[in-house]
Amino acid sequence: MSAMTIATPARADGGQRQEYNVEAGNLGDALRNVSRLSGREIIFSAEAVNGKRAPRLRGRYNADEAVKALLVGSDLTAEFRKDAILIRGRSDPSGEVADRPAEDADIVVTGTHIRGGESTSPMIVASRSKIQDEGLTDLGAYARTLTQNFSGGQNPGVVGGGGQGGSENTNSSSALNLRGLGPDATLTLINGHRAAYDGIFQGIDLSAIPLAAIDRIEVVADGASALYGSDAVGGVANILLRRDFRGAVTSARLGAATDGGDFEQQYNIVAGTRWRNGGIMVAVDYKHVTAITAGQRAYTQVQDSDATLLPRQEQIGAVVSGHHQLAAGVQLEWDGYFNKRDAVMCNAFQATSNCTTNGAKIETSVRSYSMTPTFRFELPHSWELSLSGTYGGSKTEIYSPTYNQGKITATTRPNYNNTFTTIEAGANGSLFQMPGGMARLALGMGYRSVKLDVNSIRTTSTGANTPVYLFSAKRDIYFGYSELSIPLVGADNRSPLFEQLLVTGAARYENYRGVGDVLTPKFGLIYKPTTEVTIKGSWGKSFKAATLFQAGQAREAFLAPAFIFSPGSPGGLPVILIDGGNSTLKPERATTWTASVGYAPGFAEGLRIEASYFHILYKDRVAAPISSIVTALDPMYADLYVLNPTLEQVNSTLASLNTGLTNQSGGPFNPSAVGAIVDNSLQNISRLTAQGIDLAIDYRHKLGSRDQLQLNIAGSYLESDQQLAGGMPVVQRAGIIYNPPHWRGRAAATWQRDNFSLTGVASYIGGTLDNRFQPSARVGSFTTLDAVARIQTSEERGLLGGVDVTLAIQNILNEKPDSIRTTNPAAFPFDSTNYSSIGRTISVTISKTW
User: Fold this and answer.
1) Of 29 and 335, which is predicted with more confidence?
2) pLDDT digit string (tens) for 317-332?
3) Domain spanning 124-546+585-632+680-849: which CATH class is it, in words?
4) Are 186 and 231 in contact (CB under 8 A)?
5) pLDDT average, residue stretch 141-147
6) Cα–Cα distance between 620 and 591 in angstroms, integer?
7) How far apart are CA 245 and CA 4, in angstroms?
8) Domain segments of the chain: what residues?
């Protein structure tokens, strides 16, 4: 789809009249001229205007009047909205464009490679303005609001750097974790192409892309490996950058948590220009956030007051995106980004002393970048050929001194360097005429290479340097894909109960050098018995190799005090815990299917309801088998531990590890006095299932000539369980502490009058069951209310022209996470993987269009 981005705030009445002198000719070019001259966003597909001509436009018009004049005799209609003008055919539009409100109608469907095609999976679409209207300031924060997403995995809000259910805060990045399958099982794309992995976990940092630089984000919460590759087991997200921009917008934001900490400063500028054959957009964003410490929250007063709940962060990001027509039928597109983030956190090992007395201070520095040029060639018979290449990287450097009685006993410097290279060619076009329309085909092939270099050195108090683990791993992947769309019933042959019937099929072959190869299929169906009802279904296979770090990381041993375990350690003796990688890991495989029903009743214009059911069967999932170390000595894990080990068993275990033993027991290590040895290193879990229901309701309604109401409701219900091996009990995951809850819901309502809007948001995260101790206990749910007011000045020029002021109050009632039981006094007594420690925040944002 082509989208002309506004340069000044759009007006609901079409803007002021101005002089136009547009010669008769190609309709698409004429619409682009009106968009450029008026600053109004005009959205249309290439197919809608293909072969259509516009009459000469001469005289004074506002944007709405100019578009109406150009569409005379074209059999196209225009839908005029506050933020955009949507162009489409007079017949009922198809697919996602038809079923969504105009604000979200400018989508290039992420769930398919076919131009103008339709995704057979449900899709979530959020524009930049919609995200901002809800008071959110970055894509990481947006991801944590998705009801299909689990905030565990990689999240800056995970306390203590990690350890709650295997979640981590390695470098304060934010990764999607759809259905709670892990950040490495959700694929994130930028303008449809891959980026380098972040840190040591095979996820992509969404927060590296400034919100000011994006046009929208699209999320398909359905297995998509046959379309996009083997990482897309839980789904795929596509971050679409602003491609056309004229003018400049500057913005400044200040905000803070009322309970203390989280003082945020954010400044950004977006600038761009257009020329006859192209355009460019550049965005730069700076953000500084102070830490939240345990002493600033009532429910963590038993911890050391300096212990970090949310790390201090400083981040600067830059994005560039543009395009230029090199010749007739030849287009060059490019996009790239650079991100620099520094973070500091303080982990106290004891509740009675700070991290620089007994603990560890962790300073991280992340540098990530990516650049992608793409050439597009128009071919005969409506075919298009594309050739693209991406080079990117992400480097994390960590400096972590460990303190004992106020003295540095060791300093660890882990460095993780990811690099990524890919080359891909694709072709897309029409095949032959079917009764319901034109059959279409997409083909592609390519090569990508991922590399991870790990260099971790420990320096002792004597100055001796000891390698903790050093390795370099590279993986080459060759792939090819095809996707076919066959319309059996369409506008030309529709009949009662058969408005549309479309079937799709896709297959992707991937060869992982040194791991194996696989062919993953996917089939889809779209059936519309009436113009109001849309039924979709998809079934597919997925494949994912173990990440480079999972297979290559060292196995580490920790000596843990006996009191943290339930049931307790034999004799009250400390326990050796083994974590780390496994070079013998097998590939993961999954089968996914989804069915959805969408309803857009004719009697309620602007209303759309969609309900979907999903089912995922995940086999050989790579994971640490014990999700909570507290329960490590439970009899269900009997195959993973040895009770009362002999001195020979202890020495033999430690000799097999090249990292030595980290003593966290609080006392000296005596190898003959060990209560148990627990092996929680990664392994292929036999089976994991996830299933549930998603519900989405969108409603947009005009209240008279000046007012408009928009309502968005989303809810998800999840059931999931896992079995470590055949014959072992099936263990529930969803609804258990440090795992996704069963229920999540979110509702947002926006009232708009002219240049003023008021948004209210209610968010619900269900409670969980803490079964680590007996008797089990409930962890309470988490409900927040937000309010955002936004006003734009009516002046178009001058100092006050184009000024936008936003006041946001989030978590108005200052909801706090429920307390949980702990056996370690230094452990934080709340589930940070599900419930935020930030509390109520107030922020003000001022932006100006120049």
Assistant:
1) 335
2) 999 999 999 998 899 9
3) mainly beta
4) yes
5) 95
6) 12
7) 7
8) 2-90, 124-546+585-632+680-849
